[in-house]
Amino acid sequence: MTDRIETTAEHAEAAAMPRAHEVHSKPGQPCIETAAKALKNGPAEDKSPARWAYERLILYIRNFEETLDEAHEVAMGFAGSDAGTIHIEGMGYFDPDIVTFYGQDQLGMRTQLVQHVSQLSVMLRALPKQVEEAPPTRIGFRLAQDIEAE
């Protein structure tokens, strides 16, 4: 038990803040707990399930990209699906409950996956860059910039 006294406003703010926790076997790995503080844009009750899923996925993608070398880019696999892996080129949401992923599949075919937030199960994967000469594409950074611009 703690003797710390909070004002009503401090208590309400703490309750509204996103909470996350991770432990990694390798020290120094990017932590979603630190990144979750970026989700405080706007009141929590004003965000749809689609917006919450979209913003948290962006944090996970950015953290995952921080672990990649220059030869790899992030891709997504979808559990329980035959969709395979999508090289991520874009992501969006449609309130109140749809998240959309844009990219290319393993054969280089344009791909768009539209998914209800209740069915969301994503696996992030490191895949070799598609073009050897170009620097790796970091979609997480662009997605995060878009949220911050709002």
Overall description:
This protein has 150 residues and is an alpha+beta fold. The chain is 28% helix and 25% strand. It has four helices and five strands, in the order αααβββββα. The protein has helices at residues 8-16, 32-35, 49-66, 139-149, and strands spanning 72-78, 85-94, 98-104, 110-116, 122-128. A five-stranded antiparallel sheet has the order 4-3-2-1-5, covered by helices on one side. A hairpin with a 5-residue loop joins strand 3 and strand 4. Helix 3 (49-66) packs across helix 4. The mean pLDDT is 78.
What coarse outline follows from CA principal-axis ratios?
A: globular
Specify the biggest β-sheet.
5 strands, antiparallel
Read across the widest sheet, the strand sequence of neighbours is 4-3-2-1-5
H and E string: HHHEEEEEH
Structural class: alpha+beta
State the helical fraction: 25-40%
* Uncertain residue segments: none
Distance between the termini: 39 Å
Rg from alpha-carbon coordinates: 17 Å
Count of alpha and pi helical runs: 4
What is the total tally of β strands?
A: 5
Strand content: 25-35%
What is the mean predicted local confidence, pLDDT? Answer: 78
Oligomer: single chain
